[in-house]
Amino acid sequence: MVGALLVATCTAACGVVGARSDAPGASGGGSDPGAAKSAAIRGAGDGRRDARDEKGGPRVTHTEPAPAAAFSAPGPAPLTTSRLTAASFTDGERIGAYTASAYALGAPLGEGYTAEPVGCQPMVSLAKGATPHAPVAEVNRGLVDADETYGVAVAVQLRTYAARGAAGVLGALRAAALSCADGFTEDRGLVRARYLSVESADAPDLGDEAVAYRFTILDVQGKAKLYEYLTVVRAGVSTLSFRAETTDSEDIGGVPDEIVQAQWEKFRAAAG
Asked: Peptide bond preceding 108: is omega within 30 degrees of 0, i.e. cis?
């Protein structure tokens, strides 16, 4: 069964954009200190006292110091790897028809996945270097339907960030979606894939904010159109990323909702 699952997963990935070596089974809510300081300085003008001396001398302006409370406090600390692991799916866990497993060969959609133009990078990978915000900790899981040879495969990636990193990632995704709406090229070393379009999809009403995108991709033979979906939810300083793909030319309609909801509930219970 494990062998068949690996073949099915590899077959699915190869049909879309070429062989993947990361088949399954084998972490900013802080406020801006600079902005707060500027606001404090502007507000200090309200406490200015102007006076002239008794002889009609020049005006002397006294400025009240900004109150300490006007300066912003540090944001929440990023989650640890152990807390992210507790919040993720466990190996062999079942979610409907899907079974979760760890990636035997490292994280999926890693640094080897690049985009041309480079501004489209967040559309293909959120690994370190994809945006100016590097994750502090990361946990990855893959989910597949073992009963379907060409079924949907989903990469679930939990990440946590320092300061406003998580919010910055969502901003980078929105910017990339706009600039790359008419398509781009994904490079995986030996294989290149042509994304024909990037469209907004229905995002779940979860966390502090969420985005979702639908990708139309030309297969490696340059004939069939295939579809992938990306959904990213931000919860405080962490992100929950879901990428769904299949070799079937039928539109899957989005990341399976049962996977998104199950992961969200587990994350909320474990991460607080």
From this structure: no
- Model confidence pLDDT, tens digit, residues 173-224: 999 999 999 999 999 877 888 999 999 999 999 999 999 999 999 987 788 8
DSSP for 69-84 reads GGSPPP-PPPPPHHHH
Compute the distance between CA of residue 149 and CA of residue 221 in angstroms, rounded to an integer: 20
Q: What amino acid occupies position 62?
A: H
- To the question of pTM greater than 0.70 for the whole model, the response is yes
> Which tokens hold the place of 201?
């999809």
Spatial contact of 174 and 213, defined as CB atoms under 8 Å apart: no
Distance between CA atoms of residues 91 and 93, nearest Å: 6
56-110 confidence digits (pLDDT tens): 444 443 434 444 444 445 678 999 999 999 999 999 999 999 999 998 877 788 8
Question: Tokens for 206?
Answer: 């979860």
**Spatial distance between the Cα atoms of 51 and 17, rounded to a whole number of angstroms:** 74
Q: For residue 195, which amino acid is it?
A: Y
Contact between 217 and 196 (Cβ < 8 Å): yes
Element (H, E) at 173: helix 165-179
